[in-house]
Amino acid sequence: MKLSIIKFFCLTSLLLISINLFSQTKKITETFENASKKGRYPLGEVTTTNGTWTFNEALVWDKEPTDYRPMAPRVLSAPTIDDEAGSISTNFEIKNIKHIKVGFIGYKTDPGYFQIEVLLSKDKGQTWESVGNARGKYDKSQETFAQFKVNSKKEEELRVKIKNASAPKLNKLNRINITLVEIE
Q1: Rounded CA gap, 93 and 15, in Å?
Q2: What does the alpha-carbon distance between residue 152 and residue 24 come to, in Å, rounded to a whole number?
Q3: What is the largest CA-CA distance in the chain?
Q4: What is the pLDDT of residues 46-69, one digit of tens each?
Q5: Domains located in the chain, CATH noted
Q6: Which pLDDT belongs to residue 16?
Q7: 3-class SS at 89?
Q8: Contacts for 12 with CB less than 8 Å, ≥ 6 apart
Q9: Which among 150, 147, 155 is positioned nearest to 182, based on CA atoms?
């Protein structure tokens, strides 16, 4: 009996370790179409098939007719330059990141340009460093796909944040939808 328990424990441990290693280095493709719903803007968590994300001044919902498509996260811009812009970020670490691709689109009715900023954290989200910005298509007629190159070390564990870096508007009407996040 003891030998069976020890074998079971060893096999289970090996399986969990291998799953953990695989999940941290695999390519992540997230569209949020199967995410848990978050219908309000204040800080909260959203669960996806890849893990849990923090949504700050952002929501994901299936019944909003102004969104690009159902379940495309809507992220608000900052109301002033002194305020924090809306963002979505991973609550899990990813090893060996080489590229990040983000699909996004601005609301046609919102004034001005729209853009995103991608940031990385080496300390579980305590501090963030910018990888770069990408401005969307001005006419807002189709998605913009922005690609960012990352030179992380093989064992370096990083979190990813995507921020609405559009021009601040007092009424927060510089919204974007995130349509795709690919991390590899």
Answers
A1: 19
A2: 13
A3: 70
A4: 999 999 999 999 999 998 888 999
A5: 28-183 (2.60.120.200)
A6: 42
A7: strand
A8: none
A9: 147
